[in-house]
Specification:
Blueprint (H helix, E strand, L loop, with lengths): L1 H16 L3 H16 L3 E10 L5 E12 L3 E3 L1 H10 L3 H16 L7 E5 L2 H4 L4 H11 L7 E6 H5 L2 H14 L2 E7 L6 H6 L4 E4 L1 H4 L6 H17 L2 E4 L6 H8 L4 E2 L10 H10 L16
Parallel strand pairs: 2-4, 4-5, 5-6, 6-7, 7-8, 8-9
Antiparallel strand pairs: 1-2, 1-9, 2-3
Bound molecules: ligand C2E and magnesium ion (2 copies).
Length: 288
């Protein structure tokens, strides 16, 4: 990814890093313009059942292809959008586009969406979300909201009622990037999570790093005990699929099944229903 994004991307990052007020307002304008010109779009990465390759859903990942800056990764522009007060609009724009795509999939296939804690702080969000889902004729249980913990911890009290309301509406919640940061068991138990997503840094390392393997095993045992589903992220090596499955992991995501793809390609995959790991020959760049 980093290589194809090129140096223009680096410029954007630098600009963001030591942004003065003037530069920040420039970035804000950029993001605003990219949004209005529809340059920020979701792409969809398959989430696959490890046991048999069935596609359980797709995760919408924001993509910004800018003619001047090149491809700007979400880890760079999402925090800026949060900073300059654009995250709410951006989330809705991505949500609506993702719903339009998901509507064309078989109704057994879910849609995962990353959601900023700032958006979750809007007390009107659950109702707004329900309206968008209804408008696109999607049942709430097909939607999974990926929430990343560290940011949440700071706002736990305001979030509790919103998370509960979403849960009552039937929307499912996933705790994203579990294993890194300040992941805590207390947090997982305190909120109605349906799924835990294990960060690729851990799931990707279980074959050659006993410590990572121990962390992943512990998470899987814990999740099973709590009746929570598990998705391993960042699966690049086909050998991981069997190993993770043996350890009791339900589903996986990663380059071995494929990167995020356009809505049209996702729709074709969804119609096929199953995905199998690419053969190792297709993956010489991954080093697997
Ligand atoms: P995430 O939700 O944990 O998404 C998984 C990230 O891992 C994605 O990066 C995905 O492209 C990448 N990935 C997938 N398979 C592999 C693999 O096999 N190996 C490796 N090394 N990476 C893999 P991406 O798309 O750059 O997104 C980064 C993060 O930005 C996401 O992490 C999520 O936290 C955030 N993000 C993305 N889209 C949105 C959005 O629409 N809204 C919000 N609030 N956050 C978003
Ligand atoms: Mg996610
Ligand atoms: Mg993640």
């Amino acid at each position: 990814r980093a290589k194809t994004s090129g140096s223009s991307n680096f410029r954007f990052f630098e600009l963001a890093m030591d942004a003065t007020i003037l530069q920040r307002s420039l970035l804000e304008q950029r993001i605003r313009r990219a949004m209005s010109e529809k340059k920020i779009e979701p792409e969809f990465q398959p989430i696959v059942r490890l046991q048999d390759g069935m596609i359980l859903g797709f995760e919408a990942l924001a993509r910004w292809h800018d003619p001047e800056f090149g491809s700007v990764p979400p880890r760079e522009f999402i925090p800026i959008a949060e900073d300059v007060g654009l995250i709410s609009e951006l989330t809705e724009a991505i949500l609506v586009k993702a719903c339009k795509a998901a509507r064309r999939w078989p109704n057994t296939i879910g849609l995962s969406l990353n959601i900023s804690a700032l958006k979750l702080q809007e007390q009107t969000f659950p109702l707004r979300l329900a309206a968008i889902l209804a408008e696109h004729e999607l049942l709430p249980h097909r939607l999974m909201l990926d929430i990343t913990e560290p940011r949440l911890l700071r706002h736990t009290r305001q979030l509790q009622p919103v998370l509960e309301q979403l849960c009552e509406q039937g929307v499912r919640l996933a705790l994203d990037d579990f294993g890194i940061g300040t992941s805590s068991l207390t947090f997982l138990r305190a909120h109605p999570f349906d799924t835990v997503k294990i960060h690729g840094q851990f799931s990707g390392g279980i074959l050659d790093d006993p410590e990572k393997a121990a962390v992943v095993e512990a998470i899987l045992i814990l999740a099973r005990g709590m009746g929570i589903r598990t998705v391993a992220e960042g699966i690049e090596d086909p050998a991981l699929i069997n190993r993770l499955q043996t350890l009791g992991c339900h589903a996986g995501q990663g380059h071995v099944f494929g990167p995020a793809v356009s809505a049209d390609v996702a729709t074709k995959l969804a119609a096929r229903g199953y995905l199998f790991p690419a053969s190792p020959d297709d993956h010489d760049s991954s080093g697997a």
